[in-house]
Amino acid sequence: MTRSATDVMQDVIYAAVIDAIGALKAGASNLPNNLLRDIGAIHANSTFADLPEGVRKSIEASVRAAFTKLLKEGYNVASGSAPPARPSGPPRDRVPSRGPHGRPPSRRPSGERGPRDGGGGNRPPRKPGGGKPGGGGGKPR
């Protein structure tokens, strides 16, 4: 019976974590203070080179074992060449074409023009004086 890739990877990761904890214990000579110091030195920004030597060797062995296990389960493991790059962003057929100034073009047919009242077909015509109460555009009183 073939196991799913998720099950295989969970087994691999579980084994790698257990091996790394064992390497930390062995590197600290089973002394609690040394073990706490080594665990405290590992944080989110730790690199592979920052880890103790025993943990690095444990991780390297776990990676080799993971690839071997995947191959034994019948999964194909790439040979080292990168897979073809996938396009980033949304598919091109869903992006609306843009007109000048980055705005989508109007929805009117190309030969048809709107009213000459300043645009926006549903707006009432403007009143003289800018539509302000009191009518005029002169000096304030």
Descriptive account of the structure:
Helices cover 37% and strands 0% of the residues. By secondary structure, it is an all-alpha fold.
Notable characteristics:
141 residues, mainly alpha, 37% helix, elongated
Summarize the structure in short.
It contains three helices and no strands.
Rg, nearest Å: 34 Å
- How large a portion of the residues is in β-strands, by DSSP E? under 5%
Unreliable stretches (pLDDT < 50, length at least 5) are none
SS summary, helix count: 3
Query: Which overall shape is indicated by the principal axes computed on the Cα atoms?
Result: elongated
Topology:
Blueprint: H1 5-27, H2 32-40, H3 53-72
